[in-house]
Amino acid sequence: MKKVALLLEGWGRYITNAWINGVLAKIKEENADINLYVFNAYANWSTDERYNQGEHAIFFLPDFCDFDGVICELNNTEAKPVRDEVLEKIRESGTPCIMINAKEDGFYSVGVDNYAVMYDNIRFLYEEKECRSFWFVMGPEENYENGQRTKALLDFAKKKKLKKNIDYVLDYSGFKIKDGRDAFGRLYGKHEVPDVIICANDNLAVGILSEMEKVGLECPRDFYITGFDDLDKARFYDPRISTISYRREDAGEMAVELFTDIWNGKKVSYDNYINAFPIYWDSCDCESDIVVDERAQLKGSILWNDTRGEFESDLLKLSSRITHADSIKEMVDVIRDVVVVSRCEDIIMVLDPKFWSEFEAQEEEWIFDTAYINEDCIQHIFPTFESSTSGDCYLFIPIHFREKSAGYLAMKNPIFLMEQQFLFDLINTFLSGMEILYQKECLARANEKLSDLSVKDALTGLYNRLGFGEYAKKMIAKAHKEGRQMLILYSDLDMLKYLNDTYGHEIGDEAIICASKGLKEHVTPDGMCFRLGGDEFLIIDRFMGDEAVTSIIAEIRKMLIDGSREIKLPVDLSMSFGYVVTEGQGEVHLDEYISKADTLMYEDKRRRRKGRI
């Protein structure tokens, strides 16, 4: 089974589904053993660079060595360093790559010959319509397609010896209707209205026409205008906008044909063009023999709006569950309903364990037994997403919180979402819920840290008297309920007052820290260590026998001597100990246990003092 990757940057909040449709249609037509894996980012609609960084992370998920072919359509990727890095990774893999509507050294290309069709467009306007003054309203200067269209216009102007800002004006803009309106605002009043306005696409033409009408200008009476791309808005605007038409799906179909030839060892041209042709309509005072079925368009619009309303209703119901999920497990449960709403075959959420390991501690055992948090899927998407059937489409969408990459969603055959352009809405709703969950987890951890600050000693990190009051009685009560005895080991650091008075409190603090380390290392996972006062410490732990306690005390004392010498304290540290064992049943008389342990500790201290005399 051949695997083809398609790297795609959405057009604003829309996915360019035509490329996908073309690839899948050709696979079906040829009954080819190929599956398509689409890695889609929605970055160019946002002005938040950190958000865009998180979106673009999806391009670095695949290992291109795992694929038999790669298709790239990154003309909307405004972050040039990202685009360059992705293309370099593909180049290093040695996997054959096809660029859609772009050219790169060593890569094949398919798409419209933007230069040729735009050159023919201005030639027609100049020679057939006798236009002599022009506004060139172009898209982003760095966009490849726009660059080719602009170059054709400038080359023609140079050939005809047209002068800039006299015979023609060049204005760079975006690709949206709003950009056309803004371009009109920059040009109108500063330059005479030209014979024709040539726009980089149909959106710009619509924006300019809408503003021209406001100032009383009429097309084609006062000027001509052309667009590019043959969007529905060109065909149904009044006046109908002259444009350059081509079938986008042809690029996807041609890509499959090229890969088939490459895999079969046939020689393939690096430059491959799909059919494109001009349509001259009302905006150039022309008639076209292309019939526009307005009733069919209206019918399609009615049906789409109905589908849209149904989808939004389902999404609204899901939104409440998504935003109120309190755990990853609940979010996984919601995904089952997302599959139904999206009408795809399956959705898998793969989370990066490096990101999520600090959260969901209480669910760690459950979640790592599933495919949802999976390091293998983060590093190698195959064989998890390898299909035994052909013609399947897997869509990969990043899960991120601004620039922080947290994993991805993999959707199997989400054809409905892509064709109806509902994908962004669904993904945005889901990711918003994931971010709310992430913020809840962050808040919970912050509260946990604040709680720790109140129950833990700042100097040693041991639980303080507040912590003792919070946990000690509960620990013993739990042990009694299970019929277990507990050790209560009381200790006191010898000569702390002497160290403070003679060498200062800084040395005294070092002694306390040294003692706390020795105690902590001898507490089991079932136990806890407390600092009750300046030099008083308490361990509550499971009881493992008197010999074990005696051994622990001896080890702690040795560690104290070694530790004090290691940090070069002026004296060898020592501690006095007293311990009692709980009954393992009945009521918890904690004060009595502590009092007995305290008494035994002072007896130990007196015996050891007499031993030193």
Structural class category: alpha/beta
Question: Averaged pLDDT, please?
Answer: 88
Number of strands: 19
Overall shape: it is: elongated
Q: Enumerate the strands of the largest sheet in spatial order, edge to edge or round the barrel.
A: 11-5-4-3-1-2-14-15-13
pLDDT under 50 segments (min length 5)? 360-371
Distance between the termini: 87 Å
Percent of residues in helical segments? 40-55%
**Total separate domains:** 3
Rg over C-alpha atoms, rounded to the nearest angstrom: 36 Å
Number of helices: 21
Largest sheet: 9 strands, mixed
Strand content: 15-25%
Question: How would you describe this protein?
Answer:
The chain has 3 domains: 2-95 and 304-442, no CATH class; 114-247 and 271-284, Rossmann fold (3-Layer(aba) Sandwich), CATH 3.40.50; 458-612, 2-Layer Sandwich (Alpha-Beta Plaits), CATH 3.30.70. The chain contains 21 helices and 19 strands. The protein has helices at residues 17-30, 49-56, 80-93, 114-127, 144-159, 177-187, 202-214, 232-236, 249-263, 294-323, 328-342, 353-356, 364-367, 375-379, 415-420, 423-455, 465-481, 496-503, 505-520, 546-566, 590-612, and strands at residues 2-9, 34-41, 69-73, 97-100, 108-111, 134-138, 168-172, 196-199, 224-226, 243-246, 271-273, 276-279, 346-351, 393-401, 404-412, 486-493, 528-531, 536-542, 575-581. β1 (2-9), α1 and β2 form a beta-alpha-beta unit. It is elongated and about 120 Å long. The chain starts with a strand and ends with a helix.
